[in-house]
Amino acid sequence: MTDFKALMVEKKQDHTVNKQIRTLSLDDLPDGEVLVNVHYSSVNYKDGMAVLDNSPVVGEYPMVPGIDLSGVVEESNDARFTKGDYVIVTSYELGTSHFGGFAEYARVPADWVVPLPENLGLKEAMIYGTAGFTAALSVIRLEEEGVMPEKGTVLVTGATGGVGSMAVAMLDQLGYTVAASTGKQAEHDYLKRIGADQVLPREELQPEKIRPIDKRRWAGVVDPVGGETLAYALSTLEYGGTAAVSGLTGGTKVPTTVYPFIIRGANLVGIDSVYCPMERRKQVWDRLSKDLNVTDMLETIASEVTLDELPDTLEQILQAKVRGRKIVRL
Ligand SMILES: NC(=O)c1ccc[n+]([C@@H]2O[C@H](COP(=O)([O-])OP(=O)(O)OC[C@H]3O[C@@H](n4cnc5c(N)ncnc54)[C@H](OP(=O)(O)O)[C@@H]3O)[C@@H](O)[C@H]2O)c1
């Protein structure tokens, strides 16, 4: 019987949670057609939320968190996959209601499994992970709404985070002029290195009073922050500009008005990586293996943590203390 290590979150009697490295056996894994020998996982903001005492994302306990994994198929009862296939699994219920990627093995439904595209390694795939996938989906949605490099500057909020860093690098690679906003004073050079043309302090996007419409500044916005930042970004979009919203680190309430939409023809598009349909999912990973593959930037953006270091990293990501991407080598 194969024993392996996993980070496990367990609910204690006082309703707080305990996160510890445990030894599990394959029998402990949930049902699913595909058993994956996990090589890499990655740390996303949602993984931080999964280890909170009153987690808004975990459906049941005990849970192995980790919304991302890449690895090699060990066993498959589904004709689409065979032993030895290189695969990626992200989102769905992984790491929230179904044991996830912070473990050396995972058993998952075949419908969640994406074959690793050619030109992408298992490690690279996790440097992107859900954050890179979400950044790519945001960039693709901007393109689909007609935001092309010649239309003007694209703003990326929360720019030193996972989604933000990836979006900055991808937009720069595609030839866009990128304005990156951050709350981290010490990371302006980092943002310039990964492709920002201009770095803005976070406060500039959170003025005391947000006007219904203000001076036009951006043709497009990639926004993993939400809240007042999104309200300001909408009020400063160019005519016909588009904001792609994916996150909530700055809050869930958006104090905006109808004016950006009815006076500037602004578009607000929502980005969902969790239940993104499989056909679309494969297209996004294909782009990530081709023109959105920011190969030269990956070493600057990512660093590795071990399973033992994970609990600390998960606390740091919720405090906005993580820069770029952290990947987990299993
Ligand atoms: N819709 C989807 O499918 C999807 C997929 C992935 C992620 N998300 C969401 O997107 C967000 C970012 O995820 P991530 O994994 O990139 O997280 P992350 O690496 O922690 O990045 C978040 C960044 O947001 C900024 N930030 C934090 N607190 C803030 C505040 N109070 N006001 C303004 N900015 C703040 C920080 O960047 P600076 O210090 O540079 O400002 C931080 O690094 C999360 O809300 C996550 O749940 C959604």
TrEMBL record:
InterPro entries: Acrylyl-CoA_reductase_AcuI, ADH-like_C, ADH-like_N, ER, GroES-like_sf, NAD(P)-bd_dom_sf, Zn-ADH-like_protein. It holds the Pfam family ADH_N. It comes from the Bacteria. GO terms for molecular function: acryloyl-CoA reductase (NADPH) activity. Residues 19-328 form the Enoyl reductase (ER) domain. Gene3D superfamilies: Medium-chain alcohol dehydrogenases, catalytic domain, NAD(P)-binding Rossmann-like Domain. NCBIfam families: oxido_YhdH. This is Putative quinone oxidoreductase, YhdH/YhfP family.
